Amino acid sequence: MNSTTPIAREGFPFIALSTGLTLLLAISAWQFCSTVLWLMVAFTLSLSLFITFFFRDPERVAPEDVRAVLSPADGKVVVSECVPTSPLGSAALKISIFMSVFDVHVNRTPLSGRVTGIAYDQGRFFDVRDGRASCENERSCILLDAECGVRIAFVQIAGLIARRIVSNVKLGDHMRRGERYGMICFGSRLDVYLPTDVQPLVKIGDRTVAGETVLGRIA
Length: 219
Prior knowledge:
By secondary structure, the chain is an alpha+beta fold. Helices cover 21% and strands 33% of the residues. The chain has two domains: 9-54; 68-217, Distorted Sandwich (Glucose Permease (Domain IIA)), CATH 2.70.70.10. An eight-stranded antiparallel β-sheet has the order 9-5-6-7-11-3-2-13. The protein has a three-stranded antiparallel β-sheet with strand order 1-14-12, with no helix packed on it. The two termini are 30 Å apart.
């Protein structure tokens, strides 16, 4: 992921397209003195500004506690419960974070460790607040053997609006806590699966900040 500019590079094509369209409409509006075209310029300019805002990529400072499980996403906690089945192959503590179109969508690694599994499923596009989204929507799951001795999973889930999952991770990669690893475009959800003995430190309705908010702590 991009780490040198305040805008994620995945957003550059969208920003260029909307900005180019705005310029073309502005030139046409000036040439033809058209009120309708100037209104279209105002709309496309607003769209360009929103897209730029959506793809913002601020720096984050991870807490020093290496056993603190960091939130992989900005957003609101919509699920925090133990579930009988999970990508870990056993019962797990599941914490789900809903990202609205106004949240930062760059995703970050919850713990340091090595990637031991990657699974992509091309599914459907339910609203990500729907319970069916975790198992039926398009999703990308990463299994991580953490340096602190546990295995965790985190899953990017596309929603009604989101139609593009970006994950810059390969099998065997070593990931560092809080580093950027991907994003989901235009509204989405991220599920985290942890061992059942992890005590959750967030509850439903809490707001999270990727790479900074602690979801739980490994015993």
